[in-house]
Amino acid sequence: MGDLRIGIVGAGTMGGEIAFIATQAGFPVIMKDIEQRFLDAGINKTKQIYEFKVKRRRMSPEEMDEKIRLISTTLNYDGFADADFVIEAVPENLELKQKVFAELEKACPDRAILATNTSALSITKIAEKTTCRDRVVGMHFFNPVSMMRLVEVIRGAETSDSTVDATCALAEAMGKSPVKCADSAGFIVNRLLCAAMLEAIRCESEGLLPRAEIDNALVKPDAGLPIGLFKMADQLGIDLLYKVMKILEDAFGERLAVPEIIKNLHDQGALGVKSGKGFYEYGKP
Amino acid sequence: MENRELVVSRILTAVVAEARRLVAEGVATAEDVDAAMTNGALFKKPPFAYTREIGEDEMNRRLSEYAEKYGPRFNP
Ligand SMILES: NC(=O)c1ccc[n+]([C@@H]2O[C@H](COP(=O)([O-])OP(=O)(O)OC[C@H]3O[C@@H](n4cnc5c(N)ncnc54)[C@H](O)[C@@H]3O)[C@@H](O)[C@H]2O)c1
Asked: What's the rounded Cα separation, in Å, for the pair A243 and A238?
């Protein structure tokens, strides 16, 4: 396992974090994005996580440099010809992901496993434009990847057993706890978080409690959430939440339909912490 | 019941109802659902552990009551 070469497509929030856990586990990484400034931002994200460890004296500066040197970058697919395992983390858009997977099939060797970090899109659909569907799998990390132990390993309609096993093994090698699940909208966590979020919104709109008090109640020991749901939505981003909820609505109907308030916030551009306003106000971003 | 308690109960119970459907559909096992909610959402009371905590019978009673009062999303 130690000499696996890992490709990462998309050096954004998730790509930068995944580069951290991969290099921390000792794997060489080749990272691709579409512009140099995005690659720089991704590497910076990885560096920041390492720098935090160095500051806390959990790692020496030399060790950090050694880890960072494991990462190389590209604006095309140079270097993917000897990638063993690719993790795609481009924006949550089916057409874009389908195009990336078709490109990956051409650029990577026949042995390579092609994994997607999609939040809620269908693995089977993402694999549709390839002829190597047995090697396409979902590998859903949680933000911040450096701290969250879960990886949902999602089996598409044609994903092989050996692909699922190799994906679980890689997750474990990177210090994660994989959970296998079927290719069903929202997988496990996002579907259940949305069910919780929708109930919180209903409770507020029925006038039971204002949102800040609902959030406060949820972090008390009798509820045991790490953070209030309205706050969590603002941190995740109302745009991503809207996309996930739309996928759940299409799959499960009224019970998990996008509520009016999410649609309104989304249309107003109140996307949460990053835009200064969502369910709560945050001053200038 | 106080509003605060009711809100917490409704939200956690909504997760239980959806988690039962997810398991019934064969998406994942109950054990894996709890592991996922613990490691991926940092829930201290993932749905099946929460059900054990308050008791299976009490959970079924609650689901029926909520289904009647608030809608079929709580159908057990
Ligand atoms: N942010 C989260 O909390 C989170 C959690 C779990 C999963 N996800 C999923 O991970 C994926 C990425 O999310 P993110 O938050 O990192 O997005 P992001 O916008 O931060 O990063 C996406 C990156 O992909 C790059 N990109 C776009 N087109 C590309 C292409 N053709 N080739 C290579 N790179 C390309 C962009 O330039 C950008 O740097 C999405 O599918 C999202 O649903 C996100």
From this structure: 9
